[in-house]
Each structure stands twice: as C-alpha cells, then as structure tokens.
Design goal:
The chain has 227 residues and is α+β, with helices and mostly antiparallel strands. Helices cover 30% and strands 15% of the residues. It has 6 helices and 8 strands; from the N terminus they run αββααβαββαβββα. A hairpin with a 2-residue loop joins strand 1 and strand 2.
Length: 227
Amino acid sequence: KTGWANQQSTVHGVEEVTSDEFPDDYATRIQNAHVVLTQLTGSGLITMQPVAGAAAVMAVPQAGTFPVVQPAVANAQIASAAEAAINVALGIPATDAITTGEGSSAEAAATAGAPSATTAPDPKEVGGADSPTCNVLVHNMFNKDEETDEGWEEEIRLDFEDECSKYGTIRSVVVMSKEPGGKIYASFDSEDGAKACAENLAGRWFDKRQLRVEFVPDDEMSKVNGD
C-alpha cells in the first residue's frame, strides 16, 4: 500500500494552497532542481533570459556553475522559463523559438523530421465531467508488461479499493490486466461517490504514474462486468 501519492485536493478537511507569486526562496529551489536534474540527465538546468521576439535564449552552463535568474524578470517570465528549462531537460520539444549560446537553432536540430506535437489533455480534468455517471475508468494505474509478481492484479485491485472506498460504496472493481493502458473500471452505488473518486484521482500519482480519469456509461460498465 505504498503506491499512492499524497495529493488529495478535495478530501474533507484538507486545503490545497496555490499561488501565482514566485517564492522568496526561488533561487534556492532552482538550485536544488538544478542539482537533481544534473544527477538525472547530466546537464541540469539551462540559463533563461527573455529577449525581444523570442521566449528565451538558452546557454548550456559550464561544468560546476549554475545560472542566476535576474530578480527583475517578471513572475510570469520566470515561470515560463522554468517550464521551458524542465521541458528541455526532459527532452520535450519546445514550442517557442530557442537558440543556443552560439546562435544555432537548437529546436530545429531536436525536432527535425519529427511530427508536429499535439496538445495533451490535462490529466487533472475528468473526462465526461459534463455527464457524470456512477462508473469511472482510471487510466495508467499500472503497466502490465512490467508486472511480474504472481497475483499482482489482485494486489492492485485491493489497493485501489482500499483507497477509493473512502469516497463512497464501491459496487465493483475490474482490473483490465490483459489490456494496455493500465485501466481499472470502478462502479459506485451513487453518482456522488463516483464524482468524489474521479475528482480526487484525476492528475494524482500512483507508483510514479500520473492518472487520468473519465466517467463511463452503464452499458460499458455492464460489458466489463460481463453482465
């Protein structure tokens, strides 16, 4: 029972606080992120300076140094630069014009011959939220090709039931262990229970995987249950 991340935005008594302001200790936080990314990727963060006509100019930092973000840069520009830096570190193609310190096009080299990227749906948004039902489908709960322990399907089912029973009475849970996508279907005895489960699981992390959730109609749930 260790796979669930502790992000539960709508649990009673728990308040999730967010802010658009850049924290006072941002330099320390960026330094910590740089150290972690250096260990993971060998390159760390990349210098970001806003320029006219482009989102940022990037320069690979010298070994043992760390770029300093100028305090005068606006919060929105810093946030955009930080997101772009993380995307570059993780190998995600950027959407803005980016150049290296030598002026060559890094983006063109990275994305040459690659298909245009499409905007992925926000995992924190529940699919079919405009027409909720008593049934939910949770994606990315597991990777069937990585599960090798005997009885892993039952272990994940019990783990899921243990976590999600706090949102309402569960009528059935089906682990789609033979299909890709890490899918688990769950049916609740009320729409309110299904909504609470969906809102709490959407965008949450389980075993280093971010979950997506959608409502499914009764006829689809009946087929899954073999009714």
